Amino acid sequence: MKDLTPKQIVAELDRYIVGQTNAKKSVAIALRNRWRRQQVGSEMRDEIVPNNIILIGTTGVGKTEIARRLANLANAPFIKVEASKFTEVGYVGRDVESIIRDLMDIAVSKVQNEKEKEVADKAEERANERILDILFPLNGSGAEKTEDTERIERRKRTREKLRKKLLTGEFEKKMVEVSVTSENVPFMQVFGPIGMEEMGINLQEIFGSAIPKRQRRRRTTVAEAREILTIEEASKLIDHEEMVREAKERVENSGIVFLDEIDKIVGTTAGAGPDISREGVQRDILPIVEGSNVVTKYGVVRTDHILFISAGAFHSSKPSDMIPELQGRFPIRVELNSLSSDDFVKILTHPENALIKQYQALLDTEGVKLKFTRGAIRQIAETATEVNEATENIGARRLHTIMTTLLEDILFETSGEGEKAITITKEDVMDKLDDIVKDQDLSRYIL
Ligand SMILES: Nc1ncnc2c1ncn2[C@@H]1O[C@H](COP(=O)(O)OP(=O)(O)OP(=O)(O)O)[C@@H](O)[C@H]1O
Ligand SMILES: [Mg+2]
Fold it and tell me: Is the CB of 337 under 6 A from ligand 1?
């Protein structure tokens, strides 16, 4: 894990998310605590359970955005799932244990990636040797014995020269035939009875070594052959058991599960219908949050120390409507503030992926320099607030709809002919949007 201090984590999040300081702080502490726990003596380490978090806030205030950015920051296995996607065991749909199996898959491919990078140079070197062998096959070794040492020396020198040419890229376009091992023979994909796949059991993997791997011969350029062979050589160089062991270790000790839309599985009405299974899903989630063993195709994974961050709008329900056991497992509750006009101004301009920057970049490709006056930006922000208040509060998402409406003509007219500068002023914004904002019915549809 990159060892960021909580302050550094908040600072990183600040680059993309405006405000929401409390939420940022909580996730930063939680993240750092994972690292801290790793430093604690082994007896105590097992006792320290993660402080799972619930982020509460209306729609469009940055809950998912925080999780998304955190994922990039925490160099830890991370998965984001919608709680509403899951169904009780026994019903059609995904069961909650698949979260952990997916997380394990993510971790394995991540570790594999890293290991591949580590051995990349060596793998490529070996790939190049194999290409050399294909391009300029040496005579059978039996013949060499009878040859005099001088001829052998000469051949070595030739090979050396050819190797140089190969490395300087002289043969890149040349066609060669390579044999590739296809690991996943598509028609061997067996779908066992329902549940087999869910259990993560893949027959191919069980019998993997028993089924002879298929060798295919393929004609391709040297350049592509190198890529294929490098991957193959890398796979030979990596210790797969060690890779899985490390992935498992990371999942168990620093894995993070982001459960979005948690409020959707918290029913308020005691009526019939889907509500019944909602509580069921909560009960199913409980063991993995509390700590249990999940069987994956890579072996058993313990979930005791996985960090769970959940988020929800909790419009029609409250965290206290969750089943008590689950409430206790999410001791940290953070409320995200609803966004003000001032926040909107910052969201429009400040983050590295700010909307205005995005549109500027888009139009810049066609030679248009798009500018906004301060007044224009403030006007956009205030319009967003106004519409959010008058119709439905969809938070910062409102800015997207307003910006597309505002810029529609420019985006349509621009055709990439010649350089141009366009400055949008407060008046432009008012001209374009005021009629729509005033007409509530219209703004319901457009903005
Ligand atoms: N505080 C913020 N700073 C910067 N951008 C934000 C902020 N809040 C929301 N946004 C932007 O608004 C959009 C929606 O935000 P996000 O997906 O985080 O909403 P959410 O809180 O998860 O809502 P929902 O409850 O509907 O899932 C994103 O594109 C995000 O960039
Ligand atoms: Mg969301």
Answer: no
